[in-house]
Amino acid sequence: MKIESAEILLPSKGIAEDVEFWTSAAPGLGFRMDQIYPADDPQVATLSGHGLRLRLDKAATSTGPGTVRLLCSDPDSESEARELTSPSGTRVELVPADVPMLQPPTKHAFIVRRLKDNTPWVVGRAGMRYRDLIPGRLGGAIIASHICIPDAGPVPDNVHYHTVGFQLIHCHAGWVRLVYEDQGEPFILHAGESVIQPPQIRHRVLESSEGLQVGVPAEHLTTLDHAMELPTPHYRPDREWDGQKFVHSRPEGAVWGPWRVPGFEARDTGIGDGTKGVAAVRVVRPATREEQAVCVTSHDSDILFTFVLSGTCALHGEGQDSQILSEGDAYTMPPGYKTCLTDPSKDLSLLEVSLPAVFNTTVHPQDKLPI
Question: Distance of CA 283 to CAs 258, 286, 296, 304, 353, Å?
């Protein structure tokens, strides 16, 4: 066992308020934030300053004489997650310095989240507002958040990275100005465009308006990198992070083709290639020259998430009442579950995210509505 660093554990009643107290110019305590988890509804944050590391934790109870956490590399079976107590009662926790990211098994469910249901907006990292699009997050396998910054303009963000398997930003409305490690100068992501953020790529949100973000797994660690300055001096478009490349997908010049469901067409964003099959993202619309017929389908993808970008349609789920969907609504469909889309408006546009990128769709011509 080798102890790498130490931190003081402090209970927190509100992460945002406590971070503001320790890091703001007033009262000027001189700490800075290093990590926060998870981004959309923070429960833990680590700060550093004056040679001291603080861990603010909403789950921590009253610490009495105090708790010192010693972060260890190469822990042995006896010291891993071990607790000691000093003669004066101070608790000493010996914990692994690096906790591996675990992808929990997906708890499949048919879920529909509608904008008119008035899901609460939660203040998350960098003051951004998050609306959860998947209640329960399929057992922790995925998070999909509608992100909004009420006052458009500069974002109080820092250079940071995420310990995450797959992460997408799709600009639903307005624009967002971003900068990424080894990807050149800052650029504006316009409405209708998408980027994927490979695991641990350093980046920063500079200015923003309304957007949509999807990440896997549901709860992941965000780490601030105070040493790196963006943009970096090198442009390396072919660089990989954990086997994934940075992808910036634009609708201009996109090639449309048949979607997996008859009566619709889709454009691929190239994200399947950029992630080497981890995930795929498609934009879907009604086929202009095809008559819309009732078509019941199912699929075998582990995770299949859809967000309504514009327009309206009716969603029919097996054993469920039909629901009219409109802009801002979202749904997930478990594998093997039969669904059907009907009555699409001419301006209907869907954003479909699948994990993995390649999966099978089965058409059930014998099934009629209701399913």
Answer: 11, 11, 20, 13, 9
Confidence of residue 107 (pLDDT cuts 50, 70, 90): very high
What's the CA gap between 18 and 12, in Å, rounded? 7
Cβ neighbour number for residue 72 with a 10 Å cutoff = 22
The pLDDT of residue 81 is 60
Q: Which two tokens stand for residue 222?
A: 């965000």
Q: What is the per-residue DSSP string for 35-64? A: EEE-SSS--EEEEEETTEEEEEETT----T
What per-residue string of b and e applies to 312-327 under the rule 16 or more CB within 10 Å gives b? ebebbbbeeeeeebeb
pLDDT digits (tens, 9 = 90+) for 50-70: 888 999 999 987 657 778 788
User: Which tokens sit at 197?
Assistant: 């953020």
Q: Edge-to-edge strand order for the sheet containing 129-132? A: 121-123, 129-132, 143-148, 211-216, 166-170, 194-196, 247-249
pTM for the model: 0.83
Alpha-carbon distance of 326 to 313, in angstroms, equals: 7
Rounded CA separation 46/56 (Å):
6
Instruction: Indicate the DSSP class of residue 21.
Output: H
Nearest partner of 23 among 34, 13, 14, judged by Cα: 34
Per the listing, tokens 């970008």 go with 309
Collapsed DSSP state (helix, strand, coil) of residue 138? helix
Give residue-wise pLDDT tens across range 331-361. 999 999 999 999 999 999 999 999 999 999 9
- Return the closest-CA partner of residue 194 out of 176, 175, 168: 168
